[in-house]
Each structure stands twice: as structure tokens, then as C-alpha cells.
Design brief:
- By secondary structure, this protein is of the alpha/beta class.
- It has 2 domains: 5-208, Rossmann fold, CATH 3.40.50; 214-286.
- It has helices at residues 5-9, 62-72, 94-108, 119-131, 135-143, 159-174, 195-202, 214-231, 239-248, 253-267, 275-281, 283-286; strands at residues 41-43, 84-87, 114-118, 147-151, 178-183, 205-208.
- The protein has a 6-stranded parallel β-sheet, with helices on both faces.
- Strand 4, helix 6 (159-174) and strand 5 (178-183) form a beta-alpha-beta unit.
- Helix 2 packs parallel to helix 3 and helix 8 (214-231) crosses helix 10 (253-267).
- The radius of gyration is 21 Å and the shape is elongated.
Length: 299
């Protein structure tokens, strides 16, 4: 069951999307009841592609995947993962998993209030609320939620903003509400965060997601091809080519996605493309090596 793009990007309860307020229209008469859960997502828009079903599980992310599903399904074991902190370098599936948690949580409990935010969006919302003398209203909105999900925590900057964030997660955790956070490194290495924020995040479970192995990379490519064939049934990329790309592009999932998009583009006017030609086309990706961790202080 895919979420409509309009519903996914809508922001309920008066929260805004980078400059304007969008509200989800009322469900059509006779629309399936389960679509109502889409209207409870606050904050940053969700990508309908990011679900548990489309996430490739393997040795490098199995524990994180299991914890994410436990949180999304409100399993009794989820209390051990609060706050749940996922960390990995870029392109290894953190955002995919966070958005899958939001979508699945709402599917299981349509009336729950779920907030998915990037750290940058969180800062923008608070800065705007303070400027407009509306901070109290925003705090009340965030206080009345069941699940808070924050992405790219390494970008949370500013003493006053961090103070508000710490107050928010303290209140949620003390009220037995779930908090999930992701960043490009573990909490103890987030030097830009206030010590009390790091301390609170360290009080939960931190799980690392590492680079996918060959089987996972091949699975990602096959899933991507199957998805592309929904729009164009004539697409035909051989197993030999997919196998070669999976063995050669060994960095992040994002690099693998880029390699596949290159294949799709070339295949449209080079239908008999060879392995040698693929190596020539994807050479810049092969040479890029593993993903580089970029810290705030390096920018």
C-alpha cells in the first residue's frame, strides 16, 4: 500500500514545510480507512519508497533493522531501545530506516502522532517560532506526540536550540514516549552537541549500520530493476551485468543507486552494452572508494 505523494508531503497541525503551510485534504467519501493514518505525520515529508519491504536486510544492518521494526510495531521489547540511536556514514540506509519506522508505526496505529524531522528542519521550525513569538505553541504541539524521529543529528547547532531539544526528549522519555535519532557517528563523537544532550542520547541503545556486502548489493540492484520495470516493462539488464556491478561498486548504497541510474540511462541507447563498456562508464564510481565521513567542524 503506497502512500500518495500529496499525503506524504502534507504537514498537519500547522507545522510548515520550508516557507509555506500545507494541509492534507479530508479523505474522499468512501476512501479506505487505513489512508487516514497518512494525515498524522508531522514535520518533514516522507518518501513513499522508504518502507521496511524495500529495505535490504543483511549482516551489516540486521540488528538495526530488527530494532527499528520493534519500535515501529510497538513491541514490548521496544522499551529497551529508547532512545534508539542509529549511526552510519552517508548512504547506508539511515534515512530509509527512519522513514520506514514512521510509516509502519502509523500503519499499526493510525491514531498515533508521529513526528519525523531532520535536525535542520527542527532548527528552522524553532528559529521561525521564536521570531514569530510562537515558540510556546510549537512546544505544545511537540509535547503531544507519541513518536519522535530525528535525522542527521550531527547538524543540530546552537545552544538555545539544543536546550529546547534536550528539554523535549527529556519530557518525551519521561512520559514513556519513543525517540529515534540517527547521525553519521555515535553520540559520544558528536562534539558539537551539548554534553547533556550527548548524555541523554547515550542513555539508550546505539546501533551501527555498516557497508552492505555483495549479497546485499546484488539484492538492492535486483529490487531497483524490478521497481523500474513497473514503469517500463521493456527494461532488460542481464544478471551478469548486475552481478558485475554489485561486485565492483563496494561503497555506499547511494553509490550503487548512482551506478544503476547510469545503467538505465545508457541502456536506453546502448542495449547491447558490454562489461568493458560498463567499467568505462562507471569508472568514476569505482575510483571513489568508500564513503568519507564529514564532520561539522570540517566544513
Amino acid at each position: 500500500r503506497k502512500m500518495t505523494k500529496q499525503a506524504q508531503t502534507a504537514l498537519a497541525a500547522g507545522t510548515a514545510s520550508a516557507g509555506r503551510v500545507e494541509r492534507t485534504p479530508a479523505p474522499r467519501q468512501g476512501a479506505p480507512a487505513e489512508t487516514e493514518f497518512r494525515h498524522n505525520v508531522l514535520g518533514s515529508p516522507l518518501d513513499p519508497r522508504y518502507t521496511f519491504a524495500s529495505f535490504i536486510e543483511g549482516p551489516s544492518n540486521r540488528v538495526a533493522f530488527a530494532a527499528a521494526k520493534a519500535v515501529a510495531e510497538s513491541q514490548s521489547s521496544a522499551v529497551r531501545f529508547n532512545p534508539l540511536f542509529l549511526h552510519a556514514t552517508v548512504g547506508l540506509g539511515k534515512t530509509h530506516l527512519l522513514q520506514a519506522i514512521a510509516a509502519e508505526s502509523l500503519r499499526h496505529n493510525p491514531k498515533s502522532r508521529v513526528v519525523y524531522l531532520t535536525a535542520e528542519y527542527f532548527m528552522w521550525r524553532f528559529a521561525t517560532a521564536i521570531r514569530d513569538n510562537n515558540a510556546l505553541t510549537l512546544k505544545e504541539q511537540l509535547r503531544d506526540i507519541d513518536l519522535l524521529i530525528i535525522d542527521d543529528m550531527q547538524f543540530l547547532q546552537g545552544k538555545s536550540i539544543q536546550h529546547e531539544f534536550c528539554h523535549l526528549i527529556n519530557m518525551l522519555l519521561d512520559s514513556a514516549k519513543q525517540v529515534v535519532v540517527a547521525a553519521d557517528r555515535p553520540p559520544s563523537e558528536l562534539e558539537s552537541l551539548e554534553p547533556r544532550v550527548r548524555s541523554r542520547l547515550n542513555g539508550g541503545v546505539a546501533l551501527e549500520m555498516s557497508a552492505p556486502d555483495f549479497a546485499m548489493r546484488l539484492g538492492m540492484l535486483k529490487l531497483r530493476l524490478a521497481t523500474a520495470k513497473i514503469d517500463d516493462a521493456s527494461l532488460d539488464i542481464s544478471d551478469e551485468i548486475l552481478d558485475h556491478v554489485a561486485r565492483t561498486v563496494t561503497g555506499s548504497g547511494r553509490e550503487l543507486e548512482g551506478a544503476f541510474n547510469q545503467l538505465l540511462f545508457r541502456q536506453s541507447f546502448e542495449p547491447q552494452i558490454t562489461i568493458d563498456r560498463i567499467d568505462e562508464i562507471l569508472g568514476h564510481i569505482y575510483r571513489s572508494g568508500g564513503p568519507k565521513r564529514v564532520r561539522i567542524e570540517d566544513i
